[in-house]
């Protein structure tokens, strides 16, 4: 006998009521006088993946509020008064790094000069309203976060910042690409969680099944700590590392043969000197818990931050763009991981314009993608694919990638599409494929996005 049940509490003092519906869906009719509903489950979940919870308001209009899962078994839905909405907006929205109440752009002072804020993220808007406000079932709008795949159908979102100078109070989420659902994951993991931050990096080691989080910044505080999340035990640990590495933000971090390759980034200098950009390469060895600087030769990139780095064919790292205020770059460098030698890449075709804070993702053994970014004045929306065999750029245009974004996350993952045989048939036909996922980022109007955009990699490659 299945003792599993979903229950609701209406109001503050109401008794729990068991809800009767299908095994994977419950529907709740909310009395017009009730402003708060608590949903929770009790009993063994068995083979269930999730239970969809749906509210019906006084006019019998269904409002889907989310899913109960074995990891997140309770939901609270509360009707918002105007005062509550204003309070929630203050809590959920945050601003870009080193921003001000006037919401100017987080630009770093150039050496020897003072530079006014630019327009990026200037008006403090909130793009979450574009997709409907659902703070209980999806991340709040943000930029400067990381989205890290950990297996074929799961990615972990960490950190980020939205409007009004607050860092996200929902800093960790788990994305299931089977149904594109989010699960708040802050309480899933034990141990000391990383302090709120942006401009950090998070990379996954498939051999040890651990995520390594390094660096980042929080207002005028900078980090050089290493936090490790074991995705099997779901425990955080903070590494007491040996060796020296400066506090860095907006650097790149690549995993190669179990080590972290950290390149560039912004580091703080004592006042009154402005912050500086790094051109150094640091390597972290998790087995020895030690940082070291390797000997590299060749023509290495100039100091920069906000650039991207893609590991190709497990033997080369391609570094693109970035900036050292007030100069933006669109040059390309390649690090040969066997020779530890940098070289400038001479490219053909229409290259992306100079930019930083753009997104990048590997599409295949020979191709990676660059999308969006910030050119010093505006967020960008264009998309380019680079072919390492021919060293050529190709601009592609797809309707899914037309929104200007900077500080967003791009990843590629294996996903499954479900197609019902009929509207009344629960059986589905399943198609597997590789998909590009785009999350978050900010635009020129002060919007911080919380939507998840998907594009089939096959569609991207066919657009070349």
Give an overview of the whole structure:
It is a single chain. The longest helix is centred in the N-terminal third of the chain and has 11 residues, at 82-92. Strands 24-28-27-26-25 form a 5-stranded mixed β-sheet, with no helix packed on it. A 4-stranded antiparallel β-sheet has the order 2-1-4-7, with no helix packed on it. The protein has 2 helices and 35 strands. With 464 residues, the protein is mainly beta. It has helices spanning 82-92, 457-462, and strands at residues 5-10, 17-19, 25-29, 36-42, 51-56, 62-68, 74-78, 146-151, 154-158, 172-176, 181-184, 201-205, 210-214, 217-218, 221-222, 226-230, 235-238, 252-256, 259-263, 266-267, 276-277, 281-285, 290-292, 297-298, 308-312, 316-324, 327-336, 341-344, 359-362, 367-374, 379-387, 392-396, 409-420, 428-439, 452-456.
Task: Provide the residue-averaged pLDDT.
Answer: 81
In the CATH scheme, the class of the largest domain would be: Mainly Beta
Strand segment count = 35
The CATH superfamily label of the largest domain reads: Kelch-type beta propeller
Number of H/I helices: 2
Residues in helices, as a percent range: under 10%
Q: How many angstroms does the end-to-end distance come to?
A: 56 Å
Strand content: 35-45%
What topology, given as strand order, has the largest sheet? 24-28-27-26-25
Question: What overall form do the CA principal axes indicate?
Answer: globular
CA-atom Rg in angstroms? 23 Å
Based on secondary structure, the structural category is: mainly beta
Enter the CATH topology name of the largest domain. Neuraminidase
Q: Characterize the quaternary organization of these chains.
A: single chain
> Which residues form runs of ≥5 with pLDDT under 50?
78-119, 122-135
CATH architecture of the largest domain: 6 Propeller
Domain count, please report it: 2
| Main sheet characteristics | 5 strands, mixed
């Amino acid at each position: 006998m299945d003792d599993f049940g979903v229950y609701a509490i209406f109001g503050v003092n109401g008794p729990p009521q068991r809800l009767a519906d299908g095994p994977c869906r419950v529907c709740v009719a909310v009395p017009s006088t009730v402003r708060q509903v608590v949903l929770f489950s009790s009993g063994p979940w068995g083979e269930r993946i999730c239970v969809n919870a749906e509210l019906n308001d006084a006019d019998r209009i269904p409002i889907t509020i989310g899913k109960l899962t074995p990891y997140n078994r309770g939901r609270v839905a509360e009707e918002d008064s105007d005062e509550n909405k204003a309070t929630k907006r203050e809590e959920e929205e945050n601003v870009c790094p080193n921003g001000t109440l006037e919401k100017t752009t987080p630009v770093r002072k150039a050496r020897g000069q003072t530079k006014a804020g630019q327009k990026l993220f200037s008006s403090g808007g909130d793009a979450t309203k574009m997709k409907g406000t659902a703070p209980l079932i999806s991340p709040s709008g943000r930029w400067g976060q990381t989205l890290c795949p950990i297996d074929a159908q799961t990615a972990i979102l960490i950190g980020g910042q939205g409007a009004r100078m607050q860092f996200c109070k929902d800093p960790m989420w788990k994305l299931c690409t089977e149904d594109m659902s989010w699960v708040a994951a802050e309480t899933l993991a034990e141990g000391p969680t990383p302090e709120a931050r942006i401009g950090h990096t998070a990379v996954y080691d498939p051999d040890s099944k651990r995520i390594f989080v390094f660096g980042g910044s929080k207002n005028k505080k900078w980090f050089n700590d290493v936090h490790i999340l074991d995705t099997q035990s779901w425990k955080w640990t903070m590494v007491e590392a040996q060796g020296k590495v400066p506090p860095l933000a907006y650097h790149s971090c690549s995993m190669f043969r179990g080590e972290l390759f950290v390149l560039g980034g912004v580091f703080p200098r004592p006042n009154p000197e402005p912050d500086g950009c790094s051109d150094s390469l640091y390597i972290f060895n998790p087995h020895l818990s030690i940082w070291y600087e390797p000997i590299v030769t060749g023509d290495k990139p100039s100091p920069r931050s906000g650039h991207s780095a893609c590991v190709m064919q497990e033997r080369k790292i391609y570094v693109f763009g970035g900036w050292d205020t007030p100069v933006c770059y669109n040059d390309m460098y390649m690090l040969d991981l066997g020779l530890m030698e940098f070289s400038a890449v001479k490219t053909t075709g229409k290259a992306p314009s100079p930019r930083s804070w753009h997104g990048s993702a590997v599409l295949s053994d020979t191709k990676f993608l660059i999308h969006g970014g910030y050119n010093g004045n505006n967020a960008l929306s264009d998309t380019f694919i680079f072919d390492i065999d021919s060293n050529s750029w190709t601009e592609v245009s797809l309707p899914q990638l037309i929104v200007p974004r900077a500080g967003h996350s791009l990843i590629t993952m294996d996903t499954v599409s479900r197609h019902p045989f009929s509207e009344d048939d629960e059986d589905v036909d399943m198609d597997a494929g590789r998909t590009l996922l785009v999350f978050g980022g900010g635009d020129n109007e002060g919007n911080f996005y919380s939507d998840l955009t998907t594009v089939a990699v096959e569609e991207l490659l066919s657009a070349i």
